[in-house]
Amino acid sequence: MAEKIKDAGHRRAGQIFPGLGSFVQRRLWPERLALFAAAFLVVILLGVALLGYGRRLYRDWHQNRLLHLAASMLQEKKFNDATQTAREVVKLDPDSLPAYYILAEAAEKQNLEEAVSWRTQIVRLLPNDPDSQLNLASAALRFGKLDLARKAIDQVTPSDRDRAAFHVVAGWLARAEGNLAEQEEQFAAAVKREPGNDLYQFNLAVLQIQTSDPQKSARARDTLNRLTKLAPFRSGALRALLNDAVARNDPAAADSLAQQLQMSQEVTFGDYLLCLNFYRKLDEKKFRLLLERVKPLAVRNPSDLASLMTWMNENGLAGDVVKWVDKLRPDELSSPPASIAVADAYASVRNWSRLKRWTRAGAWGESEYLRLGYHAIAARRLQQNTADTEFETVWRSAEQATNEWPKRELDLARLASKWNLEKEAEQLWLRVGKNPPMRREAFDALRRLYRANNNLEKLYDILHRLHESSPNEAPITADLARLGLTIEQNTKQSYDLAKEAYDRAPNEVNCAVTYAFFLSRLGRSAEGLEIIQRLPTDQLHDPHAAVYTALLLLEANQIDAAKEYINTTDDSKIYLEEKKLLEEARNKIATASASPSPSVSPAPAELTPTPTPTPRSTSTPPLL
Known about the structure:
Elements: H1 2-16, H2 20-75, H3 79-92, H4 97-109, H5 114-125, H6 130-142, H7 146-154, H8 164-176, H9 180-193, H10 198-208, H11 214-227, H12 234-247, H13 251-263, H14 269-282, H15 284-299, H16 302-314, H17 318-325, H18 338-348, H19 352-358, H20 368-383, H21 389-401, H22 406-418, H23 422-432, H24 436-452, H25 456-469, H26 474-486, H27 491-504, H28 509-521, H29 525-533, H30 537-540, H31 543-555, H32 559-567, H33 576-594
Helix pairs in contact: 2-3, 2-4, 3-4, 4-5, 5-6, 6-7, 6-8, 7-8, 8-9, 9-10, 10-11, 11-12, 12-13, 12-14, 13-14, 14-15, 15-16, 16-17, 16-18, 17-18, 18-19, 18-20, 19-20, 20-21, 20-22, 22-23, 23-24, 24-25, 25-26, 26-27, 26-28, 27-28, 28-29, 28-31, 29-31, 31-32, 31-33, 32-33
């Protein structure tokens, strides 16, 4: 009965709440679904986040692993492996600074030009870091990219320019531009900042030992003697000291240094050539003995053989090279660089027939343009009065064989200048001048060419370009200023340049004389005379300086002193525009001599701004 009552109760409850179950199902199921969906979404997002984070963690771990591996390979001098591994890192992260450092250092260790591009990437990531800019400039200088080096140095802020590292890089840039004076200034500044740095001391001493300043050269000699005791600098210091001893005509010191250099463990074949250069000048017997000892060494290496032959050609021994050639095997001479040295020997002794036969055919490979160049020169010399068509044809072939490569064009330009092919040389040098690392040599060659031909307009233009490429080189600035005044080009600018050159180098005779000449043309002759009076008399007797000195003395009414400078000036050693000035001075003297002398007055003459001296018969002009 109880069970029945209970069962009845359940049925009643179901009847009382007949819609309760369906109500719950209708109202709670969508909420449950939403809850489940939200939870599922959260799980998915969390999974994605964890997966992304995990991937990032793995990528960072993998990247760091590759970087450590590349750094280890670099330390072990496995440069190719280090480069390949670091490149993988860059693929993963194009802004990986450590990878670029590894790539740059590996490339520099292998002397590869791509070091410049890696240093450029580092500068991109660290544009305000002075060390990064200086490292880029150094790499650019190593591979001849002067414009890029200059741009990188210019990016260094003024506050970071008084560091030794900046002065060193700026010094090497100055040298690349041909400005040795600025190079010395910069190296001296580096030594001043870090006087205990032996490398900086060495760089400065090698420069200053060549100077005409006796105090500087003596200090440099002492520094280099000290550095011969240090292994890293021993050979370099000995070379510099040997050159200095030869220049000073000190055979005892030179002999001792030459012996030390030959016994050095770091002796190079170039050092043997340096010793040959010394003995050639001071001891013929020792020179011949060393030459015969070096020849067998040279034959072992084609590059050394060519170096020795080239040295002999340049030192008046081309005839000996021609005789030596007959004793060597053809396979030792048939290809560059030896074949080029042999061709130069034949040209040097003017044996044009043999030169033409030597260059008629052959496998000169990448130096084919030189074979054709020498062949063209031989053809021109042998044609004499006949038509020059063979020369023109072969020379055009030589130019085409350069494939417009700057280094080849440079070699061919040097060859054309050496053998006085003026038209061909000018065209080549103008092309070579477009390449920054070769620009200075090209401009200097064009300067000599235009000066020899007295083509003053082109000379002015090339001096202007030289000044633009090396604005701090005072002698070039002075030359540009003086020529500008002479041919009446940009007179105001020329005056500014003359003052700029004098302010920079007041004791340099060219700069001082140029500025003094400008002052005289402006009616300030007394100031100009004061400037040249500060210069050593022997410097003023330089043929070019003497012309301007004579004019200044004439304007100061110092006739006798002016005559001495004019009479000792050799017309064949001065430039065309200076000959006109010299003629102007002679005419002034002739006019002054033809004028009647003023009567003697018992009263003292009035004082003038420029005193007139009593004539003397000594070789040294008064007041100077």
